[in-house]
Amino acid sequence: MDPLHFIVAIFPLALYFCAMGLVQFMGRPWIMSGVWDAALMALAISGWILVGPVELFLPDDAVAQFGVWVGLPVACLYGLIVVLVILLLRPRLIIYSVSNDQLRPLLAQTVVEMDEQSRWAGDCLILPQRGILLHMESTPGGRHVQLVAVGGRQDLDSWRRLSAELAPRIRDVPAKVNYRGSVYLLVGLLLLMTVGIVSVTRNTEIAEAWRELLRR
């Protein structure tokens, strides 16, 4: 892999690891929807998609005719695929730096205010008047909890309200620093450092690769 392709593939992934590491390492409760989680993951692997399948299957005639502008329809196609996948995903909320035991009473208080008929069945929660059926999933050894929709019939507006109602409640939760986040942060920083070293030490090859790309 030439240095230009290496940078394109690694840089978005490095930023993703750094962002996830900071979210978990700073020890502050944080709520994120499944839509944003999937979108950030798609951005993280976008470089690999570009230098992998796109580079492999892109017709040479299209590159010769449109040059670097051929990347615009490819990016639009990738974006449309990501949007389609996100629309097909079931609703999900991810709460970082909070344990299951800390989240459960706050969630119970929130859902009672949203739906007086809400009830628990183990780790499953049902809000019949709001069209929500979810399951609480905690990661073993981790400090974040996922609220995952069960079944396909879900009210998206109710999920958005649940997120909005839950977000201010978790801010006062005493959270501890999740040192597992330091692993993500360390990996991200190492990748960024590698990108920087490659950019400095092989800048001539990178410039030549850019000129070759612009000449197409």
Written overview of the protein:
- The protein is α+β, with helices and mostly antiparallel strands.
- The chain has 2 domains: 1-89 and 177-216, no CATH class; 92-176, TATA-Binding Protein (2-Layer Sandwich), CATH 3.30.310.
- It is 63% helix and 13% strand.
- The chain contains 9 helices and 6 strands.
- It has helices at 3-25, 34-44, 46-57, 60-66, 71-88, 100-114, 156-170, 180-201, 203-215, and strands at 30-33, 92-96, 119-121, 124-127, 132-138, 144-149.
- The protein has a 6-stranded antiparallel sheet with strand order 1-2-6-5-4-3.
- A hairpin with a 2-residue loop joins strand 3 (119-121) and strand 4 (124-127).
- Helix 1 packs antiparallel against helix 2 and helix 6 crosses helix 7 (156-170).
- The protein is elongated and about 65 Å long.
Q: Which helices and strands appear, and what pairs or packs with what?
A:
Layout: H1 3-25, E1 30-33, H2 34-44, H3 46-57, H4 60-66, H5 71-88, E2 92-96, H6 100-114, E3 119-121, E4 124-127, E5 132-138, E6 144-149, H7 156-170, H8 180-201, H9 203-215
Helix pairs in contact: 1-2, 1-3, 1-8, 2-5, 6-7
